[in-house]
Amino acid sequence: xxxxxxxxxxxxxxxxxxxxxxxxxxxxxxxxxxxxxxxxxxxxxxxxxxxxxxxxxxxxxxxxxxxxxxxxxxxxxxxxxxxxxxxxxxxxxxxxxxxxxxxxxxxxxxxxxxxxxxxxxxxxxxxxxxxxxxxxxxxxxxxxxxxxxxxxxxxxxxxxxxxxxxxxxxxxxxxxxxxxxxxxxxxxxxxxxxxxxxxxxxxxxxxxxxxxxxxxxxxxxxxxxxxxxxxxxxxxxxxxxxxxxxxxxxxxxxxxxx
Length: 258
Prior knowledge:
This protein is mostly helical. The chain has helices at residues 4-9, 11-25, 35-54, 62-77, 79-82, 85-88, 90-95, 101-128, 140-164, 168-181, 199-204, 206-220, 226-250, 254-257.
């Protein structure tokens, strides 16, 4: 099993790959890293206009409600990029041996850095829009770390499978669109009652638990719901362990397939 010590032993390679990914993402961009702020903000403004002006949603502090859902979701959405992490370095894989997991880890680390910048934006917006910031906000890094390992576990699976099944890219894009609406990002979770056939879909989406938790921390200033904490722990552990197992199963065949 890929141990935490291995991450540490290859920390220089991981960091160099993550830094290269960040530089390439904003290469030849006039605004550069400012897009980490602009992208979620512009996306949120569009959704705020549509659902406040067109559909007349009346959720309290709806702008903050939307933004506090969009930014965590974007971290999960980075899996569309981390999927390519093994295939992207095919020439390196064929030349030298190193644990291939570091490729996926570095891609996820790059996503974490971008997301951390976006969370700073979320904190500032929460202060400006009247979010109730309390000592509970100190738990944000804990849940962000948990989300990192969730994204990492999922990325291990799809990055390994993408080496062999290129159609996965298109399937995953559709899945992300469906999962976006299956999470309470633009609507309140209370809209779906326990008697609804979609209630289990809501619970089965790990991002539902993360988004609800982040809203407790950035909007309401109270303790996260116990059910969400349990859901986050269960999904994160399962995704990470399952991801490692799948990756290790396919890893010996990477060199001949890439």
